[in-house]
Amino acid sequence: MPSGPHSNVPAGVWDKVGRNLHLQRNHPIQIIKSHIYQYFARSHKDMQGMPLFRTYDEFPPVVTTTQNFDDLLVPKDHPGRRPTDTFYVDQAHVLRTHTSAHQSELLRRGENAFLVTADCYRRDEIDASHYPVFHQMEGVRLFAPSELASFTAEAVLEDLKRTLEGLVRSLLGDVPLRWVDAYFPFTHPSLELEAFFHGSWLEVLGSGVIHTDVLKLCDRTDRIGWAFGIGIERIAMVLFDVPDIRLFWTQDKRFLEQFSDGNISNRFKPFSKYPPVYKDITFWCPPGFHENDFCSAVRDIAGDLVERVQVIDEFTHGKTGRQSRCYRITYRSMERSLTNTEIDELQQNVRTHVSQELRYELR
Ligand code: DAH
């Protein structure tokens, strides 16, 4: 457990390292992963008829800031680098914030087609679809001049679109899809793919033509290619009707027994939902206040019993210019009823931590 002056990894997050839901049999995250691997194995073969894409599942989550940011041309002042957004192990190491952190090392090794699945970590808000640990899959494909009709970004884009539309349809069925312009420092052009599913447009993946400067850093300027990154929880939640991201971490058999390897057509049948308990907390925001620091503290204290943290009131004091915020914390267990005493105790711990450690002035 990292503990130096530059570390901001709480025990509750460090505990998740090594759980590897993407390697757990019959787990929804693993089921989606295997489905995608099989899709690529079927659709892309090498000259010997073997799967073209190599798969990597076991890269450890602590990476250097060079791997996670610099190799990908992320600017030094990018907000994603800040300790409010990223878990630092020490000054030079982070818990990877995305699987893109492994692109460059594999490209340098000379790999041309690969998929990397891994646990990723981000400091974030708290609600049904955000959790400090989640899983992504990275896909990268480089082409030699002979492998494309023309050695141009347009030809790469065309292949990217065809491949990823096929992938998404293999998961979600024959749904409307649309490509949306996006921005990532490491691709140009960059695109997101959205699918119309369950009545709304869902962002499914980020992708693009790999930036020539990334290839330069990897000594691979003889090739051009595409890359994509897909959030697995997000797919699993819509595909299996899983209403809360915390469920992926439960050991409750009533959840786990509803899924089986190779089956992406079943829907999650919720077991009884336990009642929520709401608690409000109001404080003056100190200078440099960042909501992620507050959420991280709540998550740290309440673990998976916290379902949501939302601002319900805020105002700025006319004379002092100080900002006051009231947050509502929703506590709910996925597995059992909570007692008033335990929630009162958690809330008291949150209050104490916030005033003594974070030095927020409670109101
Ligand atoms: N790393 C991006 C993220 O976490 C996703 C992504 C976008 C990956 C574009 C890619 C890519 O490889 O080309 O938001």
Please give a structural write-up.
The protein is of the alpha+beta class and 363 residues long. The chain has helices at residues 11-14, 28-43, 65-68, 103-108, 153-172, 212-217, 232-240, 253-256, 291-302, 340-356; strands at 54-56, 62-64, 88-90, 93-95, 113-121, 133-143, 177-184, 187-197, 200-210, 224-231, 277-284, 306-316, 323-331, 361-362. The strands form three sheets. A seven-stranded mixed β-sheet has the order 1-5-6-10-9-8-7. A four-stranded antiparallel β-sheet has the order 12-13-11-14. A hairpin with a 2-residue loop joins β7 and β8. α2 (28-43) packs across α5. The longest helix is centred in the middle third of the chain and has 20 residues, at 153-172. The chain starts with 10 loop residues before the first helix and ends with a strand. The chain binds 3,4-dihydroxyphenylalanine. Residues 98, 100, 138, 184, 187, 206-208, 227-229 line the site of 3,4-dihydroxyphenylalanine.
What is the topological layout?
Elements lengths: L10 H4 L13 H16 L10 E3 L5 E3 H4 L19 E3 L2 E3 L7 H6 L4 E9 L11 E11 L9 H20 L4 E8 L2 E11 L2 E11 L1 H6 L6 E8 H9 L12 H4 L20 E8 L6 H12 L3 E11 L6 E9 L8 H17 L4 E2 L1
Parallel strand pairs: 1-5
Antiparallel strand pairs: 2-4, 3-4, 5-6, 6-10, 7-8, 8-9, 9-10, 11-13, 11-14, 12-13
Helix pairs in contact: 2-5, 2-7, 9-10
The structure holds 3,4-dihydroxyphenylalanine.
